[in-house]
Write a structure and sequence with these properties.
Blueprint (H helix, E strand, L loop, with lengths): L2 H28 L4 H27 L5 H11 L3 H10 L4 H10 L1
Length: about 100
């Protein structure tokens, strides 16, 4: 008879453990992410980033820079023309700031 209460306790504990485990798995299932939603969110982010990138490129292109400044940066920093122009435009045509940025890279 001593074994019956012990067995009942074990069964009760096993039932409680199973119920606890079920609660945990139910919670995890509710938190699963729908892949299609994530894909559409990422696509939206990509489009907004590309639109911002196009706008930034337009702003940079509108900045006037001197050919002499480009030449100075190209010769002093040994970078190609595109890199020199981009760096100058990013610093609103300021040669000193552009040179400092290229030195620190």
């Amino acid at each position: 008879m001593e074994d019956e209460p012990q067995t009942d306790k074990q069964k009760k504990q096993a039932t409680e453990s199973a119920a606890d485990l079920e609660k945990v798995t139910d919670y995890a299932e509710e938190k699963e992410i729908d892949v299609t939603i994530v894909g559409s969110i990422l696509a939206g982010l990509k489009q907004s980033n590309s639109a911002a990138s196009v706008e930034k490129e337009k702003q940079l292109a509108s900045i006037k820079i001197s050919k002499d400044d480009v030449e100075i940066i190209m010769t002093q920093m040994e970078v190609n023309k595109q890199k020199a122009e981009r760096t100058l435009r990013e610093h609103n045509g300021n040669v000193v700031e552009a040179l400092i940025t290229l030195v620190n890279c």
